[in-house]
Amino acid sequence: MADRQDRIRQRAHEIWEQEGRPDGRDQEHWERAHREVDEEPGETPPEPPRDISSPDDRTAGKPQQAAPTSPSRAKR
């Protein structure tokens, strides 16, 4: 993890220098460096945090039940 952060920091610094060392654009440079490092071959970006209150999370892994059918309809 620290190695990845170091690569992002180094790349952001390179971008800052390439653009003439402008003031006030550090966040933009950091985000661009972050994207570039994530796109490096072999790099697996970390998964974003999941909201555990999401309806998909509450039903994940639970078997789905078939809709009940009435006996009269099942014979048709």
Features:
76 residues, mainly alpha, 51% helix
Short précis:
This protein has four helices and no strands. With 76 residues, it is mainly α. The chain has a domain of 42 residues.
Structural summary, described in words:
There is one protein chain. This protein has 76 residues and is an all-alpha fold. It has a domain at 1-42. The chain contains four helices and no strands. The longest helix has 17 residues, at 2-18. The radius of gyration is 25 Å and the shape is elongated. It starts with a helix and ends with a helix. The mean pLDDT is 78.
The count of β-strands is 0
The averaged pLDDT comes out at: 78
* Cα-to-Cα separation, first versus last residue: 61 Å
What integer value in Å does the Rg equal?
A: 25 Å
Question: In terms of per-residue confidence, which ranges show pLDDT below 50 for 5 or more consecutive residues?
Answer: none
> What fraction strand?
under 5%
| Order of secondary-structure elements | HHHH
- Biggest sheet layout: none
- By helix and strand content, what is the structural category? mainly alpha
User: What's the total helix number?
Assistant: 4
Overall, the morphology is elongated
Provide the helix percentage.
Answer: 40-55%
